[in-house]
Input
Amino acid sequence: MVKTLVKSVREYKKYAFLTPACMVIEVVCECLIPLIMSVMIKNGEESLPHIIGYGAILVALAALSLFGGGMAGKFAASASCGFAKNLRQDLFYAVQHFSFKDVDKFSSSSLVTRLTTDVTNVQNAFQMCIRIAVRVPLMFIFSFVMGFKINARLALIYLCILPILLVFMIVVVAVVIPFFRKIFRKYDAMNNSVQENVSGIRVVKSFVREDYEKEKFSKVSQDVKNDFTKAEKIMALMSPVMMFCMYLASLLVSYFGAEIIIGSGATDMATAELSAMITYGVQILSSLMMLAMVFALITMAGESARRITEVLEQKSDLVSPENGLTEMKDGSVRFDHVSFKYSAKAEKYALADIDLDIKSGETVGILGGTGASKTTLVQLIPRLYDTTEGTVYVGGEDVRKYDLDFLRKEVAMVLQKNVLFSGSIKENLRWGNPEASDEELVRVCKLAQADEFISSFPDGYDTHIEQGGTNVSGGQKQRLCIARALLRKPKVLILDDSTSAVDTKTDALIRKAFAEEIPDTTKFIIAQRVASVENADKILMMDGGRIVACGTHEELMKTSEIYREIYESQTKGKDEPSEAMAEEAGAAAVALKAAEAAVAEDVSREGGEN
Output
């Protein structure tokens, strides 16, 4: 774990090494000052020049100690802040290479906690380690050596108290660590609650659920507070125990030291030496108190370090092959006995034995109920997930043979939950192609039926988009995302229910533009409306992770009862033999359609929660 984290120090190593070097200067000077003072007091009968000489030495040592401490603080701040910056970058870069499976494993709220709270904890512990953790053993060793030089018997008092303190610290740490593990798990839950509430604030307000959300957050926050309180109560015991040991040791040294001075007539030990001995004792025990503080911080940071290391060491199973293919002959797609499940532990397959052959340039419509695995099917094409069994071929080659970046540039996907980022419309569109000219932007926006509403904005294509695209409607957002995908000039285009928030006329115009402008691009269209896929070359009916029917509209009307029922319900059942059944099915379809449109509009306005 330490080896993994230390890699993030990188260019700040020199500051990390200079900090303890300066601490050595500070500690040595601090330990020499009591010794010089005892000599000066012991030889107080000497001439004034001697006293002035001792005084000059003391001032010089104090100034050097101040310089060492100040520089140590400066270098430690540079090293720890630089380390935290690198660590955040390394975490963020690691997350960028995660597959969907890896993100699901950690959850977005947990990753945010690790990038913020956990990194801050590790940063503070790192700074303490290169300063206090270096100062403590140095101060202890130098003070004990100096004390032993003055009087070995009295120095043993401090040595006898040391094991008691160490045992106490070990017990405290062992008790506290489980609390910190629970705390960080609850931190994740609390951040998840905040993220969910803020991204869905419009829904919360529309349903007047503010009080419920506040109560839910208050409960999670109270749980974190209770566990922290328990941990802090235990950690708080360290300070009084340390103080008790320090005062007890000082009392014993004073008592036995006074006996030695009186019993020997100040020949074995002088009063000035007893004073220095007490000073060294305070330094020894103060260093142990600092050690207790470092232990407390490291104990908390240890759990944070473990969580950070988990992310840094996570190896994605979706990796680009060495010398992967960077050419794709066409947009043909073939599924060869493909089965898939999201986890190796899952009992049920999300997709089961999918056999499918799509020629380049064909349009494929996909219909099915909620949970039919429509999205899962198309996510295997750009390798957002890897198959559990079987093979997916694009352009005649196994998708696992392609360079991953190249594959995803050739297979453009407009996700079900469309996301726009803060910036101008031009900047958002150029996610598809950073080198695209203004003319290309206009062309693809016309294909996606977005140019008309963009031109109506005062700033046109320079209009600023708020984070998540909250200042445009759901339908406008979907059309911008389609235009962004078209800029890739992909061999395969996947629309995952990406026209649900546009009207049927606009939907038809988008499909018409696709057919005329990008005839060689293979198009997969997941939809809820039969009208959106009615003219497709193939229509897939999915249920329970299987393809239950496949064919053109005319073929499915003859061979698939499910498809026929959906079509007739959505067209108000004009061909149904029973007029009453037709009216009932039509009304249900209209109600369902209105509800889906309302939900889609609401989701699209939630600020791009994903």
